[in-house]
Here is the input.
Amino acid sequence: MEKNNIIIKKETPTDYNIIPLLKERWSPRVFSDLPISEADLHTLFEAGRWAASSNNLQPWRIIWGVKGSKAYDRLLNCLDDFNQSWAKNAPVLLATMFKKTLPSGKENFHALHDLGLFMGNLTAQAQHMGIAVHHMAGINYKKAAEEFNIPDDFHVTTGVALGYYGGNPEVLPDDLKKMETQPERSRKPQEEFIFNGNFTDRAKI
Here is the structure.
């Protein structure tokens, strides 16, 4: 382990047994200094490539940059201030997007779902390789579209920070440091979003 890297283990109190790959995954805001090789990045993208998509249209598109490169700096500059404050710790940044229309020109209502499947595959592959993935809603999609000459038919959806688990939480502001070192993860109970029949009044809308 590198000198200033601290591996944080999170407790995941599942109600049913799930595979360790999913149970151990979480979204850190500090990362190991260990770089992610281009070959390993392409392994992650290959995992995403084989995700299911409606009519096999594969509407996802990804822009990536490794820390120290111009592409990385341009991606970082498209994140909101809050995310820039910690995402600068990540060895790799991505911007994700999807094609909004079908070949017919009609709206592709399933494209965002398909991008989610791509990122689900990528995230699972990353976890298998010891790489953490932190998805961010806080990206200025209009700024990113202009910065990277993205056609109007594509919508920039998320920023993503990638890096090996590790790093020192002391580099974070106090509020984020507390979140980073909190020992237990939490999720809504299934009863709030799973229904065997009608959508019920237990749903949190």
